[in-house]
Amino acid sequence: MEEKSDWNISELYEKAWAITKKYKTLWIFGAMFASLASGSSFNGNFPSDSDSLEKIFNNPSDTPEKVSQVLGAATSSPFAEMTQNLFTNVPLPIYLILGLSIAGLVIYGIVLSLISKAYAEGSLLAGIQNAIKGQEVSISTSSQTTFPRIKSLIWLYIIPMLVIFITVMALTVLFVILIIAEPTRIIGIILAIVALILYLVFYLWYSIANIWAVREVMEGKSAKESLFAGFRIAKKKLGASLLLGILNAVISGLVIGIPMIILFALIFGFVFAGVLTGKDNLPSLIGPFIAIGSIVVITFILLFTFLSATVTTFKAAVWSLAYNKIKGKYDK
Amino acid sequence: MTNNSSHNAAFWHRLLANLTDNAAFMLLYSIVLLSVFQSQNLQQALNNFIIFIIVILLVGLLSTTIYLPFFTTNFGGGIGKLLNGLAVVDNSGKFLTFKQNLFRYNVGYILSSTFFGLGFFAILKDPARLAWHDKAIGSKVIVKSNLWPVGLIATITFYALAGFIFMNGLTTASSGPLKNEFEQLFNLYMQVQRIKQFENMPSADGKKTTPKTISQSFSIQAQKVGELLDNQRYNEANTSAQALLETAQSDYEKAIAYQLIGEANFFLKDAPAAKKNFTLAVVSYPDFALGYAYLAETELYGGEWKEALEHSKKAVTLEPNNAHYQNVYGRALFENNQDEASLEALKKAIQLDPNNSLYKNDLAEIQKIINPSGR
């Protein structure tokens, strides 16, 4: 099934590092993409909502209980009652306009982040390709290459995820019905487990396919064509792609994680030292504490931005170099 | 669109244009904020404040999606750039399209904001004085006519006007009716905090109250307000009671003053204000039975049966031998479908004040509804 590896990982890393080091313009797009992309560090653009899901599953009853406690407290206090009355008496049209304004702003934010992410990723990939070819790497050339491809990139971000979401929802409803009904319960449970395993395998396949698909788009293919091409490459190169992805994740974890751990250790050490010196010395320590604290925080932010920019660029370069090795090979 | 003498604008000139834009927005915000400061009461202030938030949100949304792209497409820039004599053009000197401007002011600005706004500071170092967003879209900002002094004056004027309006509004708010309303709210909050502290510190005999301190002069003034209420001169009573509140020294005196204001409001049919002042009365002096009774009356008036029962019960607990309180309690029990207890309380009220026809009326009315076969 799977063919012999088309690339040599150490060679990919060596070349990717050389590109990252030489073309600092790419860091700009790397930083922009890193700040807009969500998901794991596997490749920098895994679509994932695991954080929010985790929160829901870990604290299923948190919100209602807290809300009811707050309401209880509010109604029993005259002050809270008065302020509550004030908010209740605000005319409904004002709340409606406020709601519409917030909704408008949220929609604007989502659309803007999608376009910006597509632009940043496209420009990063275009810049890397230029760097590989030894051509000029600039904001201008990368942007001009990306503009016609932004729509296709956004299509890749939205449509497959939407299809997956609708399918998962439909299957969930089906399995729930099967499980609720007594005669089909066992079949429903078995089917649900099989579907869950299939879903996980498919999602992994899709995630890898997506890495290749965005590069296909940058080659000028349509979004749909690129997605299918991405699936084909992912099928042929699943093992090698997984290995590359895991290595990327480990490297980014080390590069970003270790300096962050050191910085956190410094912060905790500083706080601990402050506590040890005792309460009496605290007023005289406030000035130095704020000064050193600010320096540490600024260093933290600077370092994080810089590291995430370079690591994102490096990982994108690794994948692009690998892509160049197999470009066109699995078209049929 | 451009003449031959035009050149790319320097960083400071572009910064000034940006400040002019900001100053214009500040002026707009300060005008809207003025309506908050000029509000006559807390409710109006809150409504206007939400409108102020809406304006900020809409300006934030529309400035980069409509205002700046539209003005830059048609005139070369927003008000800031125009007043400073600047224009955004493409490499051939033509104005950008709406789509290009939309990209420039949104995605382009995000690009330049990367690395803490380094893309904007790039203008300082770049030989062609281009920001990152200019390079991305292929635009440049040129000086059409060197109007920076006009821009500077406009910026200072806008900021000064905004500052003046803001300070003026602040002065109005701090000397107008809004100040009193805020003080009342703040006092209420502080009193609630004090009660909480008080509740956590029981005295030796377990009774949690302060002495009923009242001066002779306060007592005389309070009686005068009472007379005004008896004579149905509610507006005058309200004004006098407000003045009385200013002279209140002890918590008990404050409770009486709030009570009188509340009564005036109650008879003026301003139920929310009455309720607020009765609440303030019982918060000022937690054992103020009269305040609880009137609070319950107001709640009965507003159909808040559960709260009325809670507060009237508090009043009869504090003073079980008060006929008025028993009557209110009885009516509250009736509204809460506690018929037997209701009749008992209403009968007790008549026992305590046998000549009161109102209490007899209430009992008769309620008995008519309850008897002979229940509701």
Descriptive notes:
The complex is a heterodimer of chains A (332) and B (375). Chain A has 332 residues and is mostly helical. Helices cover 83% and strands 0% of the residues of chain A. In chain A, α9 crosses α10. Chain B has 375 residues and is mainly alpha-helical. Helices cover 74% and strands 3% of the residues of chain B. Chain B is built from 16 helices and 3 strands. Chain B has a 3-stranded antiparallel beta sheet with strand order 1-3-2. In chain B, α1 (11-37) runs antiparallel to α2. The radius of gyration of chain B is 33 Å and the shape is elongated. The model of chain B is unreliable at 201-208 (pLDDT under 50). Chains A and B meet through α2, α5, α6 and α7 of A and α2, α4, α5, α7 and α11 of B.
Question: Topology, please?
Answer:
The complex is a heterodimer of chains A (332) and B (375).
Chain A: H1 9-22, H2 25-36, H3 50-58, H4 62-76, H5 78-88, H6 92-133, H7 139-146, H8 150-180, H9 185-218, H10 223-236, H11 238-276, H12 282-326
Helix pairs in contact in A: 1-12, 2-6, 2-12, 4-5, 6-7, 6-8, 6-12, 8-9, 9-10, 11-12
Chain B: E1 7-8, H1 11-37, H2 42-75, H3 79-83, E2 86-90, H4 98-125, H5 132-137, E3 139-143, H6 148-175, H7 177-199, H8 216-230, H9 234-247, H10 251-267, H11 271-284, H12 289-301, H13 305-318, H14 323-335, H15 339-352, H16 357-370
Antiparallel strand pairs in B: 1-3, 2-3
Helix pairs in contact in B: 1-2, 1-6, 2-4, 8-9, 8-10, 9-10, 10-11, 10-12, 11-12, 12-13, 12-14, 13-14, 14-15, 15-16
Beta-strand share of residues of chain B: under 5%
Mean pLDDT across all residues of chain B, rounded?
88
- The assembly state of the depicted protein chains is heterodimer
Query: What is the N-to-C order of secondary-structure elements of chain A (H for helix, E for strand)?
Result: HHHHHHHHHHHH
Largest sheet of chain B: 3 strands, antiparallel
Task: Pick out the low-confidence regions of chain B.
Answer: 201-208
> Strands across the major sheet of chain B, in which order?
1-3-2
Q: Give the radius of gyration of chain A.
A: 25 Å
Number of strands of chain A: 0
The percentage helix of chain A is over 70%
